[in-house]
Every structure is written in structure tokens, then in C-alpha cells.
Amino acid sequence: MSGDPAELIAGVPSRLLIGGTWTDAAQGRTFAVENPATARKIASVADADASDASAALDAAVAAADHWAATPPRQRAEILRTAFDLLQDRRDDFALLMTLEMGKPLAESDAEVTYGGEFLRWFSEEAVRITGRYGVNPEGTGRTIVTRHPVGPCYLITPWNFPLAMATRKIAPALAAGCTVVVKPAELTPLTTLYLAQLMIDAGVPDGVLNVITTSAAKQTSASILTDPRLRKLSFTGSTPVGISLLKQAADQVLRTSMELGGNAPFLVFDDADLDEAVAGAMLAKFRNMGEACTAANRFLVQESVTEKFARRMADRAQELKVGDGTEPETRIGPLIEAKAIRKVQDLVNDARTRGARVVTGGETLDRAGYFYQPTVLRDVPAEAHLTSTEIFGPVVAITPFSDEDEAVRLANDTPYGLVSYVYTKSLARGQRMMERLETGMMGLNTGVISNA
Ligand code: ADP
């Protein structure tokens, strides 16, 4: 809890966790972890290959029966202890996430709260494993449905929420009595390694939680995914990788849970409270530098309020202090890597050449690290690439609409269906939008909807 980055990182495990033992990669290789705010290396971690992945699965298989037979109350207590330990180590986890991922400290702290909630929620769910009792249609028999742990699970997490994406997969699996192999993103492995240490301290038995870090996600994962002892795959990440994993999972008829990309529309109707809409839009867009699958990607704003909305968003965007997330006044940290900056710049340039107007921003920052100016674009035409691509950056793209039917048509004009946001004072319209927008979640007059 010293707050000193070097001291903190020195205390974070850098090896693989296999069967309860911190282990070097079989080939002895390591790879570097960088701080995106400085583009400097901050740590090296073990670089697992296929044989390490198989060893991790061996450990998960060996621990599976005993963990499945461990009383739910005991599993619950371990998860609850992990939740409590996380509160004690809050500042360290927050700083670690800022160092390896870039988000401002206040947002890292909020992620400790959000990520911790999965530990608490699933500690509570662990003791509520229910089934069903029914009568068969003929009336001649009774049907009993019971739930069982599926067995060893492989959990692949992304870099944008290094703690929360790990707890939200690990906690439910452990609560249900499953053992796991976790593979964090190569860009942000430290938080998961630190979490694994915390889970051991909380009493997770050897082999129940295994962690492999690797710079070769595809090859290393393949050895686990083709192993018939694996029972489930859970993945959060990009749609193309998800598609490739679903194809591999099909060969083993694996159970899968996939959380892939998003392209959230953010609708502002002319009857909305504009102050609230702007406040919600700031959160839905700039939280995590826009690097979230739930980030608002397309702002659809009714013509009569477009001018006002764009101006206010630009004013607010200009006030956002861009910088190293460890500095307390920073509101926008760096993007994750150089490639991300190039992608955002290409999308903005493309929108410009197709007629979008830059109200503010639109450039990278001339300094070390991967910084991009908070940007507001208006009059973005439907054919601009950023309307069909996940921007994953701090860019507000505004397109006007004339009436509700046009808003719905534009909002639904995407193959993605993760989330949408709607600002209106009309309850009747809010309810209509719930029916008409083809997204799994809809935020009504709110810019943040993620919770356990
Ligand atoms: P992003 O584009 O946001 O970086 P990715 O889908 O590339 O998202 O990465 C999400 C996670 O998937 C990371 O842990 C990454 O290492 C992993 N990953 C990427 N490609 C593969 C693959 N072919 N097989 C298994 N895991 C992969």
C-alpha cells in the first residue's frame, strides 16, 4: 500500500499459476508489459506455450471433482473473503490497473468496486443453486432438474477492464463448483496475476484457479481448446476472435459464453433534459477513454437539438484533462497501444473526408505514450467507417435524425446488438424504444448500465 509503482510491481507475481504453484514457462521465455502512458516497459511475465497450457488444464482437471464436492457454503465463504481482501488491497489494484492499462486512477478505483461486486454477488449465488420439479405431460411421472458443475472452464479476458472481466468469469465458475484456467490479455496480465495471489490468500485450493500468460494467445489456446477434457469456454473480446473461437469450440461441442463487440447507439430526443443527456453522454463515451464494448459509438440526435448538444459536448470535451492516469487531475488516459491510436486517427480522417465536421479535437498528442484528443464530430454521414466500426477511442460521432422512425432505423442499422442508450422525458417513448431497439440492454436516461 505504499503507492510506489516500482514497489507495487515488484510484489506482483510474474510467473504462471499451475496447480497452486507459481511456475516459469516450460521454455523459460518471458514477454514485456508496457505502460501505455509512457510506452516504457514496466514488467516481464512468463510466456506460456502449448505445453504450459496443457499443464494448467491438467491441474484444473485434477482439482475438479474435489472442488465440485466442496460444500457451496465453503465456496461462498472463499469468494466472500476474496471480496473483503480486495477492499483491503483496493489502492494497489487501482494503481496496478492504471499502470498497465492507462485508465485514470479514479476509474481504476471504480473498477475495483465494479470488479469486486462479482466476487460478492457470486458468493451469494453460490448457496442458491436451485433446480426444478415438474410433472410430465402424461401425468405418469415426476421430472427433477438439477444443476451440476460443468467441469474445467477456459476463461479468456480482454485488456480494457483487467480486474472486472477476470472476476466476472472466475467468480461464477468457482461459485458453481467449476475449476478454471484463465488467460488474461497479453497487454494487461499483471492485474490477473495479482488477483490470483489474492484468491490463493482467500483460500482457493490448489488447481481450482490456474493462470497462463502468453504472447501467443492463438497457439497456446489451441492446445486447451482441442482437449476433450475442457467443458466450457468463456470469452470476452473482439468479434473476429470470438468467431474463430466459436468455430474451434464447435469441433468439441463445447459450451460457450461470448461477450463480443458493440456499436451502441445513443439517442437524444428533443424532449430530453439536455443537461442530463450531456452528462450521460460524457460517461457513455469517455469512461475508459471510450475503450469499452458498451461505449456509445453513434450519437443520434434529433435535428432541433443537434447544434446545442454538439456545442455542449465540445465544451465538456475541451475541459477533460488528458494525461498519465496516475496524475490526480487526469480524466482521459492513453489508449492501450500505438495500433489503437492509428485506428482512431484513420476513422476520424475517413469521417472528415466524407463530410463530417470536427467541432473539437481530431488529433493525437505529441508526447510519449498513446494519447488522443477528446474529439467531437458532427454531421457524420452513415457511410463513414466509424458508424459501422467499434471506435474504441474518445470520439463523439454525431448524426442528426428527424423523427422517431428514422432514429430507430439508424440505431438498428448494425449487426451488433449489445446495448443502446435513450434520452427522453416521455415514458411512453422510452417504453416504445425498449421494444423497437434491437439491443440486449437499453439504458433509459442513464449513461452507465454495467453491474453485477
Ligand atoms: P482486442 O481487439 O480488444 O484486443 P482481442 O479479441 O484481440 O480483443 O483480445 C481479447 C482476448 O482474446 C485477449 O486475451 C487475447 O489474448 C485473446 N485472443 C486474441 N486472439 C486469440 C485467438 N486466436 N485465440 C485465443 N485467444 C485470443
Please render the helix and strand layout as text.
Layout: H1 5-10, E1 16-18, E2 21-23, E3 30-35, E4 40-46, H2 50-69, H3 72-88, H4 90-101, H5 105-125, E5 132-135, E6 142-145, E7 153-156, H6 164-176, E8 180-183, H7 190-202, E9 209-211, H8 217-225, E10 232-236, H9 239-252, E11 255-259, E12 264-268, H10 274-286, E13 296-302, H11 303-319, H12 338-353, E14 357-360, E15 375-378, E16 395-401, H13 404-412, E17 419-423, H14 427-436, E18 441-444
Parallel strand pairs: 7-8, 7-10, 8-9, 10-11, 12-13, 12-17, 13-16, 15-16, 17-18
Antiparallel strand pairs: 1-2, 3-4, 5-6, 14-15
Helix pairs in contact: 2-8, 3-5, 3-6, 3-7, 4-5, 4-7, 5-6, 10-11
This protein binds adenosine-5'-diphosphate.
Quick gist of this model?
The protein is an alpha/beta fold and 452 residues long.
Task: Explain what this protein looks like in three dimensions.
- This protein is globular.
- α3 (72-88) runs antiparallel to α6 (164-176) and α4 (90-101) crosses α5.
- It has 2 domains: 5-259, Aldehyde Dehydrogenase, Chain A, domain 1 (3-Layer(aba) Sandwich), CATH 3.40.605.10; 264-444, Aldehyde Dehydrogenase, Chain A, domain 2 (3-Layer(aba) Sandwich), CATH 3.40.309.
- The chain has helices at 5-10, 50-69, 72-88, 90-101, 105-125, 164-176, 190-202, 217-225, 239-252, 274-286, 303-319, 338-353, 404-412, 427-436, and strands at 16-18, 21-23, 30-35, 40-46, 132-135, 142-145, 153-156, 180-183, 209-211, 232-236, 255-259, 264-268, 296-302, 357-360, 375-378, 395-401, 419-423, 441-444.
- It is an alpha/beta fold and 452 residues long.
- Helices cover 42% and strands 19% of the residues.
- The structure holds adenosine-5'-diphosphate.
- Adenosine-5'-diphosphate (ADP) binds next to α8 and α9.
